[in-house]
Write a structure and sequence with these properties.
about 450 residues; alpha+beta; 2 domains; 5 helices
């Protein structure tokens, strides 16, 4: 029921299924179709929105998590109070220790006195007066015997008192340890409850931030092109064009771009796969934004602004694959969106993708030149009326043609489908989120 997890799982599920067929690629070599560079998600794919919790469910989850957290706080407070109670002198266990200590101290004093009496009696018996009579000697011997008996009894009483003090002290210590254990468990329960509450609140805030759904709209188009090979450690340049094909002006136009390294044939991809490690950093610039700009969590889109009917906006993209990235396949994909001031908003019905080979970073040793593969070129989009007449705000269209092929590379249809599926899940997911975020920001302004 976690929204972000649903989006992430959508990517994993979308990518995982086609990977199964990578091993069978040669069997389909003669019959594989050529995928288009702009695709819609297939109707057979699972829609993550079907598992999206409702607002009422999220609020109920927050209320339940809050209740569990409050209960955990109460339990922890009680446990803390119980532990502190053992420090009070009037606590039964403390009283037992105090009484036992008094008894033990008295027994120790009595034993010491008895021992001293025994020493005196033994000395009197061992060193009788020179003129001591037999009766005196007998009396001295009897005194030793009595002192020995008293000393033995005092020792026995002290041992018993010490055992009683030890038991009372152990009972108090065990109780304190038990209370501390309860506190530790209560702290863990409170921590877990706090995390659950934070997560529930985060999901509710995320849902409320998304707000209403924006419809899919073919009015906003994107075209993406670039080189067929990218060398690890070096930058590669791509072109993006955002177009308004409708008969009206679109406001708050944005474009979202991502690039990833695709899994190698046979590589295990599942829901535990960390797709963040596969992301290829993308920067962008345009005629009115000359500096290369990175995408961040706060600014995760290209803000085109207003786009008049028939207008377009051209963007340069710079992709930089990590220098230690292995050779393989990569894909860049994009989707457009808009948010009109009247509350109407839309996400591009189609997304654009372009695939490329990733070449390992070049070493000092010469390498043979790869044999170029045949590609099918796609005509350059026809330029519309240029200049800033087509855009406002951060807009400003360019007549620079978007060159390159928008069709598939033809290298491996299964790899193309991986990029296709990942593009749908990630790009459209990001588009829905950010468009909704703009809608909420506009409503709060």
């Amino acid at each position: 029921m976690k929204i972000r997890r649903i989006l992430a799982t959508a990517v994993a599920a979308a990518v995982t299924t086609p990977v199964v067929f990578l091993s069978a690629a040669p069997a389909f070599a003669d019959t594989k179709p050529t995928p288009s560079s702009t695709q819609k998600a297939t109707s057979g794919e699972e829609d993550p929105d079907e598992d999206m919790p409702s607002l009422e469910e999220l609020k109920a989850a927050v209320a339940l998590a809050q209740k569990e957290y409050d209960e955990a706080v109460v339990v922890l407070d009680k446990a803390m109070a119980a532990l502190k109670a053992y420090d009070k002198p009037d606590h039964p266990l403390q009283l037992a220790v105090t009484d036992a200590k008094k008894t033990a101290d008295a027994a120790a004093t009595a034993k010491n006195a008895a021992d001293e009496e025994l020493k005196k009696a033994e000395k009197a018996l061992a060193e009788p007066p020179v003129d001591a009579t037999e009766e005196q000697k007998t009396a001295a011997a009897a005194a030793v015997t009595a002192a020995q008996t008293a000393a033995t009894e005092a020792a026995t009483a002290k041992t018993a008192a010490d055992e009683k003090l030890k038991k009372a002290s152990t009972d108090l210590s065990d109780a304190e340890v038990a209370a501390s254990t309860v506190i530790g468990l209560a702290q863990k329960v409170k921590k877990a409850a706090a995390e659950k509450l934070d997560e529930a609140k985060e999901e509710l805030a995320f849902f409320e931030e998304i707000g209403g759904d924006c419809k899919e709209d073919p009015s906003i188009k994107v075209a993406l092109s670039g080189p067929k090979t990218v060398t690890a450690g070096k930058s590669a340049y791509f072109s993006l064009r955002v177009s308004n094909t409708s008969e009206r002006t679109l406001e708050g136009v944005e474009a979202y771009v991502d690039a990833v390294r695709l899994p190698a044939p046979g590589e295990l991809i599942d829901e535990e796969t960390d797709f963040a490690e596969r992301i290829i950093p993308v920067e962008w610039s345009s005629a009115d934004n000359l500096e290369w700009t990175s995408f961040t969590e706060e600014f995760d889109s290209i803000e085109v602004g207003k786009l008049v009917k028939g207008g377009h906006y051209d963007v340069k993209l710079r992709l930089t694959v990590a220098a230690d990235a292995p050779a393989g396949k990569g894909v860049a994909f994009s989707v457009g969106a808009y948010d009109n001031n009247d509350g109407d908003c839309g996400i591009g019905e189609q997304f654009a993708q372009t695939e490329f080979d990733i070449l390992a970073a070049k070493s000092d040793k010469p390498e043979p030149k790869p044999t170029p593969s045949e590609t099918t070129a796609t005509p350059t989009p026809a330029p519309t009326t240029g200049g800033n007449d087509n855009t406002t705000q951060q807009g400003g269209s360019s007549n620079t043609p978007v060159n390159g092929s928008l069709a598939a590379t033809g290298a491996n249809d299964n790899v193309a489908q991986i990029g296709l599926a990942a593009g749908v899940a990630v790009a459209l997911g990001a588009g829905a989120l950010v468009v909704a975020r703009r809608r909420k920001a506009g409503a709060d302004a």
